[in-house]
């Protein structure tokens, strides 16, 4: 499976990502939402690719010679400002697995936030338990994209701190092609009942986007619970919550969701 994923990294990295416009609002979310290509580990390194990359011949590498590079050489390329070069280096580091963990842990503290984000993506793919504490620290990075990627990586490791980190960084790293979705939303939406106690209280948030995102997660999780036979019936029975309704109506419905959650 890792070989397939790395193949996607190295294949897609030659493409330019030009579609940048926001699309649907809350009223028009994607059906059966899943992580879109723009935010998967295979392609998220591409989001800022320069369609006219520099001609740094000494840094240029391809699929044939990447496997022959030393760790030091890969680290040098991971730090490159040429985004194709750094993306290819990341793919090769992921392919090498846990032996690349020290390089990525060092990159996780690099001065360039994009490099730190790539490091978090790589550590997510490698899933080395030794990276857990560093990833937790990175969930408090000053850069939102780094925080979100580190939270996803920590959650992927199965670390007990991962779920709370995802919720804490819920609004970081928006998916520009699928508004109002964010990077942290996708693993939360695939979670189980354990997600709800942390998300349902956000239905009362003062921030509308936070409410919208929280409700999308509640819907995604609740519809998979064996206790929920019909989502629309449940939604109506609990006050027809809407993130855009007046506060009194929202809070009344949110209270019913909290009561329902206590009875699960």
Automatic annotation (TrEMBL):
SMART domains: EZ_HEAT. Keywords: Antenna complex, Phycobilisome, Signal. GO terms for cellular component: phycobilisome. It comes from the Bacteria. Residues 1-26 form the signal peptide. This is HEAT repeat domain-containing protein.
């Amino acid at each position: 499976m890792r070989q397939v994923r790395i193949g996607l990294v190295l294949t897609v990295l030659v493409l330019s990502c030009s579609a940048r416009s926001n699309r649907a609002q809350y009223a028009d979310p994607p059906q059966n939402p899943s992580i879109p290509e723009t935010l998967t580990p295979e392609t998220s390194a591409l989001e800022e690719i320069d369609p006219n990359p520099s001609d740094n011949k000494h840094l240029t590498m391809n699929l044939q010679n990447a496997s022959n590079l030393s760790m030091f050489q890969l680290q040098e390329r991971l730090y490159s400002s040429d985004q194709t070069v750094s993306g290819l280096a990341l793919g090769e580091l992921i392919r090498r697995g846990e032996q690349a963990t020290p390089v990525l842990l060092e990159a996780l503290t690099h001065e360039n936030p994009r490099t730190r984000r790539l490091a978090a993506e790589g550590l997510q793919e490698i899933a080395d338990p030794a990276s857990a504490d560093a990833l937790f620290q990175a969930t408090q990075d000053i850069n939102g994209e780094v925080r979100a990627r580190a939270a996803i990586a920590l959650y992927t490791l199965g670390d007990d701190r991962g779920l709370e980190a995802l919720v804490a960084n819920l609004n970081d790293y928006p998916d520009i092609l699928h508004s109002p979705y964010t990077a942290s939303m996708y693993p939360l939406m695939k979670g189980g009942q354990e997600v709800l106690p942390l998300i349902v209280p956000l239905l009362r948030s003062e921030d509308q986007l936070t409410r919208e995102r929280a409700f999308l997660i509640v819907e995604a999780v609740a519809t998979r619970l064996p206790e929920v036979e019909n989502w629309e019936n449940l939604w109506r029975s609990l006050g027809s919550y809407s993130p855009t309704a007046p506060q009194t109506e929202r809070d009344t419905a949110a209270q019913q969701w909290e009561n329902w959650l206590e009875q699960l």
